Amino acid sequence: MRRKDREITDSDRIQEIIDACQCMRIAFADGACAYIVPVNFGYDKAGKAFYFHGAAQGRKIDLIRQNGYAGFEMDTEHRLVTADEACGFSFEYSSIVGKGRITMVDDPEEKRHGLDCIMEHMAGGGRWEYPDPMLKLTAVIRLDVEELCAKSNR
């Protein structure tokens, strides 16, 4: 990281940033181009894994199966800092960037766990049911974090 003065290493603060984010962007290599898609997510802190869900077909699913690796980014706490001169403007934020192995989840119990992580993050606590027919149609994806960097300009 170039700006070490903005680096966050405290695991509690990193978790706060993850908790505050509503959207994560996952990025894939697609030939000579990058393919980036925004997703909602859940985080399994113990397993250091993010979970996503969606349709079982499409470009994202093809790239997961093809590459098995992805980058990710999330950010929050945005605030424009104004000044009298253009060069004095700045932007406050907190962000996380990382990469890791990404796979489709096939096991029904892990699918339920992944969906529970997503529902916990997006909707808070509660008990959720996932009927078997819906579970079979829903793609659940796990990204195992191999590298994660957090940064803040506050």
UniProtKB/TrEMBL annotation:
Q: Which Gene3D superfamilies match?
A: Electron Transport, Fmn-binding Protein, Chain A
Which domain of life does the UniProt lineage start with?
Answer: Bacteria
Pfam families, per this entry?
Answer: Pyridox_ox_2
InterPro entries, alphabetized? Pyridox_Oxase-rel (IPR024747), Split_barrel_FMN-bd (IPR012349)
By what name is this protein known?
Answer: Pyridoxamine 5'-phosphate oxidase family protein
The protein's organism comes out as Enterocloster hominis (ex Hitch et al. 2024)
